[in-house]
Design brief:
- By secondary structure, the protein is an alpha+beta fold.
- It has three domains: 87 residues, conserved putative lor/sdh protein from methanococcus maripaludis s2 fold, CATH 2.40.420; 87 residues, Elongation Factor Tu (Ef-tu), domain 3, CATH 2.40.30; 114 residues, no CATH class.
- The protein has four helices and 18 strands.
- Strand 10 and strand 11 form a beta hairpin.
- Helix 2 packs across helix 3 and helix 2 runs antiparallel to helix 4.
- It is elongated.
- The protein starts with a helix and ends with a strand.
- About 5% of the residues have low confidence.
Length: 363
């Protein structure tokens, strides 16, 4: 009886022990499974790669210069007795701006006029006496007129009058072009500064934008090409101009100077204003990708494409560039081609052959 009890206990022990062992193994295996759990797909976004004309952009910084501008300065150093304009005033060509104390010049001019008139009458008397019916210098032969001019001193009197008139004009500043008065600092009853202009006249209805481009960009420029001008002080405002001059000279920095003309359509542009000049053109036939699609791997440019739900990197080289896009050339046996889907977001730390959760962004 005792032996029977031992046999029953032994059978029970061996039947329970494998179950415990299996349970322990399952538990251990579950832990390993937790550690090696499958990674979640990486969330990315992208779009179809494009092929077509590339909207190239040349961007440069420049300054505005008035197309018509004059710097005015007195040739005499007398006291300013009258100023007829102030800064910001618009003046038409020929308008008197300021004048110096010119009493002596006025007297000299009047004296020259009187002498000129007296000599003219003396010459006329000789002309009438030379030929009956003659009333004007044109009525007698040229050699006779020349002789009468010398006898009366007509030419000397005429020269003296012209000199007096010039000296008088030197005391007056007259606008040579239409425009707006600028940099007028002198006051009445003061002497004008001799080392700088009395004032400037700036025609602000039209400006020239002076900027430079690299020598490898000149081939894309031509006269009459559209230029978009954006003042730094008014970044939301744009003006449309046209290229009018390409200087055929490369400076020591490899730059070429360009001039474009832009109308001051709303009157807000000012002389010397800093602006951004943007020139757009189209270069045909290229693979076009957004700038955010190009990332670096091992110091090489890479564009990731979507292939069977996984990432695939393509080594590329960028060629043309604008503010938002590149044209690319696929290198090192890349498979990227027209119609493929490229990844534009979530690609900064992306690896090759990673499982993706992809969202398509229609452009």
């Amino acid at each position: 009886m005792k032996n029977l009890i031992y046999c029953i206990l032994a059978i029970c022990f061996f039947s329970i022990n494998p179950a415990c062992k299996k349970k322990a193994e399952n538990k251990f295996g579950s832990k390993l499974g937790d550690i090696g759990a499958k990674a979640d797909p990486i969330k990315t976004e992208g779009q179809l790669i494009e092929f077509g004309d590339f909207p190239m952009e040349l961007v440069s910084n420049g300054k505005l210069e008035a197309f018509h501008k004059a710097s005015l300065k007195f040739r005499n150093s007398e006291k300013v007795i009258k100023i007829y304009c102030q800064n910001g005033d618009w003046v038409e060509a020929g308008k008197l701006i300021a004048e110096l104390d010119n009493q002596m010049e006025k007297l000299d001019l009047e004296q020259a006029k009187l002498r000129m008139e007296r000599v003219r009458l003396d010459r006329l008397a000789l002309i009438v006496g030379h030929q009956i019916g003659a009333k004007n210098p044109e009525d007698i032969p040229a050699d006779a007129l020349k002789r009468f001019n010398m006898q009366t001193g007509f030419e000397e009197a005429e020269l003296a009058y012209q000199q007096a008139l010039i000296r008088f004009d030197y005391t007056r500043l007259v606008a040579p072009v239409s425009g707006r008065i600028a940099s007028l600092e002198c006051k009445e009853q003061n002497f004008p500064a001799g080392d700088k202009p009395f004032c400037l006249i700036i025609n602000d209805k039209e400006f020239e934008v002076v900027f430079s481009v690299m020598e490898n960009e000149v081939a894309a420029l031509r006269s009459g090409q559209e230029v978009i001008v954006k003042p730094f002080a008014m970044d939301s405002v744009t003006y449309i101009g046209r290229v009018v001059e390409i200087n055929p000279l490369i400076d020591e920095f490899g730059h070429v100077t360009i001039k474009a003309r832009v109308p001051n359509s709303n009157g807000r542009l000012l002389e010397g204003m800093n602006v951004k000049a943007l020139i757009r053109d189209k270069v045909p036939g290229g693979l076009i990708v957004p700038k955010e699609a190009v990332v670096l791997r091992n110091n090489q440019q890479v564009v990731f494409s979507l292939l069977n739900g996984r990432s695939y990197w393509n080594y590329v080289e960028t060629e043309l560039e604008n503010s938002s896009s590149y044209t690319i050339r696929v290198v090192k046996e890349g498979i990227l081609k027209v119609g493929d889907t490229i990844i534009t977001k979530g690609n900064l730390n992306l690896a090759n052959d990673a499982e993706l959760e992809f969202k398509f962004n229609a452009k």
